[in-house]
């Protein structure tokens, strides 16, 4: 029993450390957003022009945030499932199947149960840059590497065996064979032109065009407001700290139990 309690204590203390580390990460994300002043696209353009005249073209780089409407930059983009006009899209296909698992209890009794499993076989996001515009101007946004928060979910369906999607992924079937396949879950998310978005990232001068990128931090594009995002990070940090305290408390109790078991 000693080793069981000691092992549980180690796992719980590791869990507490992970929760605290994650809480600090959530707090850091909230601070990064609140410490950056919201600007207009026009103000960013004026600042970049001023820096360029003093230091040289292509030298502007600053963390900024703007609120505006999503716009296409050039040709149209179509979501693969809905064929809707969008500035960004993501499609994920998840194979879901079941396996029959046999277990034996402490009395030697054997039982069989059906266990559902899943595996993502395809997850693709568009990488074409789009723009954010607010009436004072527009700034490009790199889709590659961007964190798209709360986009519209345009498709959420399950294609069974024999469907077009299922047929196209038959070579990727896992475990249980065709008879055990439940189907393929198809999900699509989109950002449509005209969607109000909040963009936070590092704006740089790329050949005379201002572009939002991640830089040395985060590139966030969200349909939520800054206040909602910050509140979400702070709430997550709070509950992670609660989890850390609970894990430490249970870990301490496990150490006491391990010590007591030595003298039992």
From TrEMBL:
Segments forming domain E3 Ubiquitin ligase MUL1-like: 101-251
Highest rank taxon of the organism: Bacteria
Chief localisation class: membrane
Catalysis performed (reactions): S-ubiquitinyl-[E2 ubiquitin-conjugating enzyme]-L-cysteine + [acceptor protein]-L-lysine = [E2 ubiquitin-conjugating enzyme]-L-cysteine + N(6)-ubiquitinyl-[acceptor protein]-L-lysine
Subcellular location: Membrane
Signal peptide extent: none
Membrane topology value: Multi-pass membrane protein
Keyword Amino-acid biosynthesis listed: no
Matching InterPro entries: MUL1-like
EC number in record: 2.3.2.27
EC category name: transferase
Transmembrane feature ranges: 239-263
Keyword tags: Membrane, Metal-binding, Transferase, Transmembrane, Transmembrane helix, Ubl conjugation pathway, Zinc, Zinc-finger
Name of protein: RING-type E3 ubiquitin transferase
Organism: Conexibacter stalactiti
